[in-house]
Amino acid sequence: MDNKGKIIVVTSGKGGVGKTTSSASLGAGLALAGKKTVVIDFDVGLRNLDLIMGCERKVVFDFIQAIKKECKLNQAIIHVKQISENLYMIPASQTRDKDHLSLEGVQEIMEQLVQEFDYIVCDSPAGIEKGAKMAMYFADEAVVVTNPEISSVRDSDRMLGFLDSSTRLAEVEGKRIPQHLLITRYVPERVENGDMLSLQDIDDILGIPLIGVIPESRIVLDSSNQGKPVITNQDDVAGKAYQDVIKRLLGEEIPLRFIEAEKKGFFGRLFGAR
Amino acid sequence: MSGIFSFWRSNKKTSASIAKERLQVIVAHERSAASQPEWMPKLQQEILEVIKKYVEIDSSALNIEVRNEGQDISVLEINVDCPIK
After folding, report:
1. Please, which domain of life does this record's source organism belong to (chain B) (predicted)?
2. Which of A206, A258, B22, B81 could bridge across to B61 with cysteines, CB 3.0–4.6 Å?
3. Whether residue B11 sits in one domain with residue B42
């Protein structure tokens, strides 16, 4: 094995399930674990990763400009040092559209980034169009973000199909890209009540290994509001769950947490509505 | 939640279990559709039009799929449900 960086795509098919939130937290977590990491926003025309990572005011050049050589690659890379010395990001273009993403152009950028970084996290746009296809094409590993909700699980299954057929690993090397399932917005109480799909249900349908379960948490919105990836919140369950995901990505085997409903005490049972 | 309280739940399907069953059906269907060749929908449409010239059937009466039978054989299977006149 050489010392090239690893490319991870964060994808889902469906929008609004937590791709950008997860990309920001995975990037921040890897950086805080000492890995030099860059997170790339592939949502051309609808830039948002910059806001979630708290660096929207530092954006000068973007990914498309770097691809089209209107700027140097390192001019498009923003150092997110308020979170970690090791953390960088590349914003999406806000004015151009996805047609400017070419396979050769993206490849050229990726080849430079793997020389310089330990991890390249690709934040995929929703849908199955060019942006999403480009975000996954050069990946070495995929993280599929899924909500315990019927349309999200279906879309994730479609994405798994694309990951198996439309990546460089599959097309050129005939290999299967390693896939990890990341379940977000999980509410153990609702699962116990039978009105939310359980981990087991989702596993029965998708059948790919689980890298983590992020419980529903009000702190996620709070973190977005402030432009601080939720993983940097050490006290919150979602923050802790993302920290566990990082450990698993780096090879540690640790048990899942926050997947059981909280046991209510005697008074809780008496007065706890729902 | 186990014990005597689960007694009330046991005969009522939870919405999560309904969701799971619906997902299992649709995902299996979409996976088999995704594994079919690209020209399949067009072939299906054209065959349907030919049959319709002779027999009155609707589109759900035609089932068509390509199956891999071992290494170098694949079978194109066409099933048509014809009404008895």
Report:
1. Bacteria
2. B81
3. no
Q: Does B55 touch chain A (CB under 8 A)?
A: no
- Asked if B19 and A150 come within 8 Å (Cβ–Cβ), the reply is yes
What was the pLDDT predicted at A163? 95
Q: Are residues B28 and B13 in the same domain?
A: yes
CB contact under 8 A, B23 and A150: yes
Q: What does the pLDDT read at residue A1?
A: 47
* Residue B56 domain boundaries: 38-85
CB pairs under 8 A between A and B: 42
DSSP summary character for residue A176: P
Distances (CA, A) of B69 to A91, B41, B53, B77: 48, 21, 32, 12
How distant, in Å, are the alpha carbons of A12, A32, A128, A248, A273 from that of A180? Answer: 11, 21, 19, 10, 36
Q: Minimal Cα distance from A197: which residue of B?
A: B16
